[in-house]
């Protein structure tokens, strides 16, 4: 079988050429086409400003047995229900050098594994920089999946954000479609909703007014001459055709109800918890509908300043992250902040675990790996060593329920393992100088 | 019986309209230069007196034009029909009660028809009409009344029901949505406001200097724009104002800079180009945007130099929908911020132009789908800006928001339908969608989609009730603006005042001052001259090495400046087009065309100076009238030689309004290489000497020859190939008088006083404005308009008033069938 058959040629084979499928109908219905085999999914979630190391990392390495008996540190404690599905990697380092300060390289090289271009964005130290010089691993895997009919989806990837500021610079972009091609995450759940379900809604709206249009045509026909009425009859026929097309296209598609979004939630700092939940729910729905197999979720930005007043933290996150380890009150607050982020990971894991895999085996979590990561190892030292990588779920076929200590390996190797886990066997990724010894073996 | 086509039958090709529109589509994709090689003799039959097709330009493809076979000799068939058929079928096939009552109308081809007649007719004795006789009768009835074409030809000129054209649709949407926001005019100023800051941001405290920049095209090197004040390591500049689109379509907006930049265009929230981050070697940023002609779009451009930036430079350029890439000229910039417009960019199938002007008298599946996509696009755009459009704050209570949104919806429907909305309609079109506490956005979307897809919105002329003042308002608005009526017009309609002819004239006068009317008239002039196809015109690099894209842009500016002279005058005088004795030139053009700029006054008015262009007086013996503008001449030329045929066809059809039959065959022009000693004129004569050619080319060539003293780029020449240019021409007028002219000056004198030229201009302007055949408004209307035009010293503005006034009162109810007034061609 020729695997490179594109969806377009597939549709042509079925006789569904562009001519027969009206433009406004043909997108939603693509969800069904590609549901053969196991659906592997990848979610990468970002939170900023490093972690509180002694309240994050497990005390020591542990295989499945010893990890099970180990207590998780406070920040990771929300993941306790999924401990057997969790993998904690310590010792992965972002070794990319070059232009830009550690925050900029922290987010810009995190998923790309390459240097930043020289540019005009000046951080607190080091040289100024521009965008990353290459694409990010999620986009690399997306290309691979989209090139194969059995894994091609409507969007290929979805980029979610929560409280990402409305400005484009090196600190606010993690995902790249290529060098100098940052992709902006969508932070507004209503915008994301429209992207996912807008056409479905439009079709409902259209359907609801067709009778009125016929009525209007009828009235008009009464006041024009019989010659002119011919054109109006032609018009009436065209509207009837639209109606039939709508009806037949509604027969296939969506395997889940269009979610209802709570209306009028303002996109501001106070609403961060509600927005986060809305975005995660939309993400789960987009997986159920198989709109995408790859998603990223970016909380705020590098140097992010979320003020988590709902946790009793009045200060901005980044400001706090500069406090020394000796400032117990600050470390306590940072722990709360990071725990809150971990709760979001846990909420997603819970939603996926509770959802049976559509047309498949087990739960959606069995086929999805969530990777929680960060721009820095630690906020006050700005280190790019020991970048947090915590994985939950079975999408990548890694051996889970473990805590690993790695010998300061370059994070490019981990990025390659992720691709391999998704079936994309690349020999190098990002700057090849950091790909020595190849992908980590985690399965 | 006439052996040629009767005149005055507008919709002669009604049955073909769809195909024609489709083939236009096809043509749009084929190379213009290839099409230019097709000899101009491929200019086809114009279907009617009303059809001065705009496609007389050299780029008209042959296969687009319906070709009518020259009518066969029908006299014999007619005689047989009269003798053997008419007693049952009627003299014109209309049928005879009690014998054969139905009309002889159908779509069988002649061969079928002949077969049927041979076998079955006359019913009482089919052997009476067989073989050759049957074929002759078939040919006769097919041509006279049986076929769809014959039927269309016989139909009297009438106002057909018409939907908005694509241009009208886009304008209607823009104006409909804009009626809910503030708006202002750009005024006469040009260029952009500029503010300089001593910092990388735009803190007002760091403001250093303000001014107006005509264009944005700066290379400040390692220093700043204002060396004394801006010696700071970082500085920023902001330009603000509006960008005015000269044509409709998709533009590329381009910024080139070594530094950081951001551009907002027609969107205050989201930047069109965000290159605040300079990264690597990227120095050029481009983005496309769909813009509608004649509208101003708010623009803000920001720039900053970072500490490390070694050099500073910025350019704001664009690529017109079908043109070259140039720096955005100050002509298209205004230092006033206008409001953001909702531009529907959904692609629509092109309108039918088969009879010379765009009409909305056909619909298709593609059009229906486009109206759906368009409605959804607009609904999305409205929902995004709903608080602004409906006039509420996001902080308002949900009840208040709902109330305001409903008010908006009601007004929206009224303005879109251009009439009052009954109580029942209010319920069905608006209230229903807000029931059951439906989310506001959903309700608004449904109202908008219903409204914009409704026939009541989409069709222009909807009732035959001539006294309906709302109908008058709509006719005026579409006729003068290509858009829907504004609030003032609707109020005058509501009060009934608009039925009063004085009020009509007053409103027309007001409407003509509006930018939309000016845009419509300007578009028409380019349509009349055929110069809107000038984009992409290229000439032989060997023969005319200096004629490049920049020359073409300069020539366009030169022609535009002249057209401004005519149209911006309080009494725009049509005759100026025919007797103008100056040319706008810049240095490049002066050099290329051999003129001296010394002493010539600078172009433009006090408030708007066109830098670098000068008004240069011509020797009228050499060059007079807009027909001898180099751009017009270059348009109607080959890439390496003048083309008397293209020029002649242009004059025949556009300027004199004459009809031409289809050429008998497609012919390629003779290559010069085959006849190296012949002048263009001699070659043209040789090529068209056959008798079959001469019936048309006698007229075409002899008009075109009078412009032979201009080469392929419109440069004056006294000789060609070592021989003196022979620019003698002649023209047999419709009244049978032969007029001859030796060269461009006598030609101009003739055209200046020709009633044919005036008739042609009037008729084309009428069709451009009203998009319905002029004779549907009375067979005497063209003569009446010409009389008034002449009485008003050929004031184009007054002509527009007359046209709008006649058209707003609706079509004549009883117009004699065209056949009654038909004349031989």
Quickly list its features.
heterodimer; A: 443 residues; alpha/beta; Alkaline Phosphatase, subunit A; 2 domains; seven-stranded mixed β-sheet; two-stranded antiparallel ribbon; 10 helices; disordered N terminus; B: 825 residues; alpha+beta; Cytochrome Bc1 Complex, Chain D, domain 2; Jelly Rolls; 4 domains; seven-stranded antiparallel β-sheet; five-stranded antiparallel β-sheet; 13% strand; globular; disordered C terminus
Structure description:
The complex is a heterodimer of chains A (443) and B (825). In chain A, a hairpin with a 2-residue loop joins strand 4 (175-178) and strand 5. In chain A, helix 4 (137-146) runs parallel beside helix 10 (411-421) and helix 7 (272-288) packs parallel to helix 9 (328-354). By secondary structure, chain A is α/β, with parallel strands linked by helices. Chain A is elongated and about 90 Å long. Chain A has helices at 7-13, 64-69, 102-108, 137-146, 189-223, 226-251, 272-288, 317-321, 328-354, 411-421, and strands spanning 41-47, 86-93, 156-162, 175-178, 181-183, 292-299, 368-374, 389-392, 402-410. With 825 residues, chain B is α+β, with helices and mostly antiparallel strands. Mean pLDDT of chain B is 84; it is low at 1-70 and 814-825. Chains A and B meet through helix 5 and helix 6 of A and helix 9, helix 12 and helix 13 of B.
Topology diagram in text:
The complex is a heterodimer of chains A (443) and B (825).
Chain A: H1 7-13, E1 41-47, H2 64-69, E2 86-93, H3 102-108, H4 137-146, E3 156-162, E4 175-178, E5 181-183, H5 189-223, H6 226-251, H7 272-288, E6 292-299, H8 317-321, H9 328-354, E7 368-374, E8 389-392, E9 402-410, H10 411-421
Parallel strand pairs in A: 1-6, 1-7, 2-9, 3-6
Antiparallel strand pairs in A: 2-8, 4-5, 7-8
Helix pairs in contact in A: 4-10, 5-6, 5-7, 7-9
Chain B: H1 17-29, H2 32-36, H3 75-84, H4 86-89, H5 110-120, H6 131-146, H7 148-154, H8 166-178, E1 192-197, E2 207-213, E3 217-221, E4 235-244, E5 249-257, E6 260-265, E7 273-275, E8 284-291, E9 296-305, E10 312-319, E11 325-327, E12 333-334, H9 365-384, H10 386-390, H11 398-417, H12 423-434, H13 440-453, H14 455-458, H15 469-481, H16 487-494, H17 501-512, H18 515-529, H19 549-568, H20 576-579, E13 582-585, H21 587-593, E14 602-604, E15 609-617, H22 630-635, H23 644-655, H24 680-687, H25 691-704, E16 719-720, E17 723-724, E18 728-732, E19 738-742, H26 744-753, H27 755-770, H28 781-791, H29 796-808, H30 818-821
Antiparallel strand pairs in B: 1-2, 1-4, 3-10, 4-9, 4-12, 5-8, 5-10, 6-7, 6-9, 10-11, 13-15, 14-15, 16-17, 18-19
Helix pairs in contact in B: 3-6, 5-6, 6-7, 9-13, 11-12, 11-13, 12-13, 15-16, 15-29, 17-29, 18-27, 23-25, 27-28, 27-29, 28-29
């Amino acid at each position: 079988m020729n695997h490179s058959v594109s969806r377009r040629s597939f549709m042509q084979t079925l006789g569904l050429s562009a001519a027969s499928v009206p433009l406004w109908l043909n997108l939603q219905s693509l969800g069904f086409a590609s549901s053969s085999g196991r659906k592997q999914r990848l979610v990468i979630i970002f939170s900023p400003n490093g972690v509180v190391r002694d309240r994050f990392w497990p005390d020591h390495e542990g295989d499945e047995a010893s990890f099970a008996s180990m207590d998780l540190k406070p920040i990771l404690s929300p993941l306790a229900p999924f401990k057997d599905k969790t993998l904690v990697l310590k010792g992965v380092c972002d070794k990319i050098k070059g232009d830009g300060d550690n925050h900029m390289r922290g987010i810009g090289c995190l998923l790309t594994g390459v240097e930043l271009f020289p540019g005009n964005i000046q951080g607190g130290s080091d040289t100024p920089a521009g965008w990353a010089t290459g694409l990010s691993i999620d986009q690399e895997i997306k290309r691979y999946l989209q090139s194969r009919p059995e894994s091609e989806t409507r969007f290929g990837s979805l980029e979610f954000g929560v409280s990402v500021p409305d400005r484009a610079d090196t600190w606010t972009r993690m995902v790249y479609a290529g060098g100098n091609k940052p992709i902006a995450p969508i932070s507004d759940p209503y915008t994301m909703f429209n992207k996912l379900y807008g056409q479905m809604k439009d079709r409902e709206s259209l359907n609801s007014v067709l009778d009125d249009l016929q009525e209007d045509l009828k009235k008009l026909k009464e006041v024009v001459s019989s010659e002119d009425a011919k054109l109006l009859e032609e018009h009436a026929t065209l509207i009837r055709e639209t109606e039939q097309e709508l009806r037949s296209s509604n027969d296939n598609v969506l395997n889940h109800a269009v979610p209802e979004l709570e209306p009028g939630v303002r996109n501001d700092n106070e609403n961060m918890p509600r927005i986060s939940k809305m975005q995660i729910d939309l993400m789960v729905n987009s997986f159920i509908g198989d709109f995408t197999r790859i998603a990223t979720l970016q909380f705020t930005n590098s140097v992010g300043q979320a003020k988590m007043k709902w946790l009793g933290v009045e200060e901005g996150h980044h400001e706090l992250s500069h406090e020394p380890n000796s400032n117990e009150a600050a470390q306590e607050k940072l722990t709360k902040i990071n725990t809150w982020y971990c709760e979001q990971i846990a909420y997603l894991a819970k939603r996926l675990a509770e959802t049976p895999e559509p047309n498949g085996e087990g739960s959606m979590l069995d086929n999805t790996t969530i990777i929680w990561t960060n721009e820095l190892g630690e906020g006050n030292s700005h280190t790019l060593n020991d970048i947090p990588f915590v994985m939950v779920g079975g999408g990548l076929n890694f051996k889970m329920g473990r805590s690993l200590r790695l010998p300061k390996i370059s994070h490019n190797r981990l990025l390659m393992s992720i691709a391999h886990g998704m079936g994309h066997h690349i020999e190098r990724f990002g700057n090849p100088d950091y790909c020595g010894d190849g992908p980590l073996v985690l399965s | 019986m006439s052996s040629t086509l009767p005149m005055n039958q507008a919709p002669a090709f009604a049955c073909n309209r769809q195909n024609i529109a489709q083939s236009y589509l096809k043509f749009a994709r084929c190379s213009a230069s290839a099409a230019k090689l097709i000899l101009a003799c491929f200019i086809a039959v114009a279907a009617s007196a009303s059809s001065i097709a705009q496609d007389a330009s050299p780029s008209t493809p042959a296969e687009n034009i319906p070709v009518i076979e020259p009518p066969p000799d029908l006299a014999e068939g007619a005689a047989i029909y009269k003798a053997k058929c008419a007693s049952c079928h009627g003299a014109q096939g209309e049928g005879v009660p009690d014998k054969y009552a139905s009309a002889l109308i159908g779509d069988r081809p002649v061969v079928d028809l002949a077969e049927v007649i041979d076998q079955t007719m006359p019913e009482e004795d089919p052997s009476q009409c067989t073989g050759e006789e049957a074929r002759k009768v078939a040919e006769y009835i097919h041509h006279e009344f049986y076929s769809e074409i014959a039927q269309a030809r016989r139909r009297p000129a009438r106002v057909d029901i018409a939907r908005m054209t694509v241009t009208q649709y886009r304008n209607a949407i823009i104006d409909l949505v804009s009626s809910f926001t503030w708006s202002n005019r750009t005024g006469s100023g040009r260029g952009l406001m500029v503010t300089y800051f001593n910092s990388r941001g735009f803190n007002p405290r760091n403001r250093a200097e303000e001014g107006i920049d005509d264009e944005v095209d700066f290379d400040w090197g390692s220093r700043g724009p204002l060396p004394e004040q801006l010696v700071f390591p970082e500085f920023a500049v902001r330009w603000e104002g509006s960008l005015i689109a000269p044509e409709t379509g998709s533009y590329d907006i381009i910024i080139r800079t070594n530094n950081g930049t951001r551009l907002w265009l027609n969107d205050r929230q989201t930047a069109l180009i965000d290159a605040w981050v300079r990264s690597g070697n990227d120095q050029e940023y481009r983005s496309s945007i769909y813009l509608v002609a004649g509208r101003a779009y708010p623009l803000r451009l920001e720039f900053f130099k970072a500490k490390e930036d070694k050099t500073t430079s910025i350019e704001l350029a664009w690529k017109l929908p079908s043109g070259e890439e140039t720096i955005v000229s100050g002509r298209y910039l205004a230092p006033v911020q206008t409001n953001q417009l909702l531009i529907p960019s959904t692609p629509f199938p092109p309108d039918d132009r088969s009879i010379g002007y765009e009409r909305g008298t056909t619909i298709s599946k593609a059009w229906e789908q486009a109206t759906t996509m368009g409605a959804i696009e607009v609904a999305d755009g409205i929902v995004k800006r709903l608080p602004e459009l409906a006039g509420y704050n996001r902080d308002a209570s949900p009840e208040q928001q709902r109330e305001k949104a409903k008010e908006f919806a009601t007004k929206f429907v009224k303005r879109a339908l251009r009439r009052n909305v009954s109580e029942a309609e209010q319920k069905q079109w608006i209230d229903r969608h807000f029931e059951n506490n439906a989310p506001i956005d959903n309700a608004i979307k449904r109202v908008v989609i219903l409204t914009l897809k409704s026939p009541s919105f989409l069709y222009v002329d909807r009732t035959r009730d001539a006294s309906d003042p709302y109908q008058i308002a709509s006719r005026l608005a579409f006729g003068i603006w290509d858009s829907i009526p504004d609030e003032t017009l609707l109020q005058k309609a509501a009060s009934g005042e608009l039925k009063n002819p004085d009020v009509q004239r007053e409103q027309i006068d007001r409407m003509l001052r509006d930018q939309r009317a000016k845009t419509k008239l300007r578009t028409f002039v380019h349509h009349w001259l055929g110069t809107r196809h000038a984009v992409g015109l290229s000439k032989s690099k060997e023969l005319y090495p200096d004629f490049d894209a920049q020359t073409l842009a300069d020539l366009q500016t030169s022609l535009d400046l002249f057209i401004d002279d005519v149209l911006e005058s309080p009494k725009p005088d049509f005759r100026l087009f025919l007797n103008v004795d100056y040319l706008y030139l810049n240095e490049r053009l002066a050099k290329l065309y051999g003129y001296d700029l010394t002493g010539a006054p600078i172009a433009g008015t006090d408030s708007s100076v066109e830098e670098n262009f000068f008004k240069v007086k011509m020797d009228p013996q050499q060059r007079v009238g807009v027909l001898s503008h180099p751009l017009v001449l270059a348009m109607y030329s080959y890439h390496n030689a003048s083309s008397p045929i293209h020029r002649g066809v242009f004059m025949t059809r556009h300027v004199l309004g004459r009809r031409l039959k289809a050429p008998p065959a497609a012919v390629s022009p003779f290559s010069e290489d085959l006849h190296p000693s012949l002048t263009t004129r001699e070659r043209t004569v040789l090529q068209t000497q056959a008798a079959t050619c001469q019936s048309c080319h006698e007229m075409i060539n002899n008009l075109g020859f009078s412009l032979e003293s201009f080469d392929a780029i419109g440069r004056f020449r006294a000789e060609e190939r070592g021989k003196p240019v022979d620019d003698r021409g002649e023209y047999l007028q419709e009244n049978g008088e032969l007029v001859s002219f030796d060269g461009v000056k006598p030609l101009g004198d003739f055209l200046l006083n020709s009633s044919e030229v005036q008739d042609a201009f009037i008729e084309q302007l009428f069709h451009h404005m009203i998009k319905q055949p002029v004779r549907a408004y009375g067979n005497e209307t063209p003569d009446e308009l010409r009389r008034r035009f002449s009485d008003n010293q050929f004031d184009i503005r007054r002509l527009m008033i007359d046209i709008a006034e006649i058209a707003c009162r609706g079509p004549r109810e009883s117009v004699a069938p065209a056949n009654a007034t038909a004349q031989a061609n």
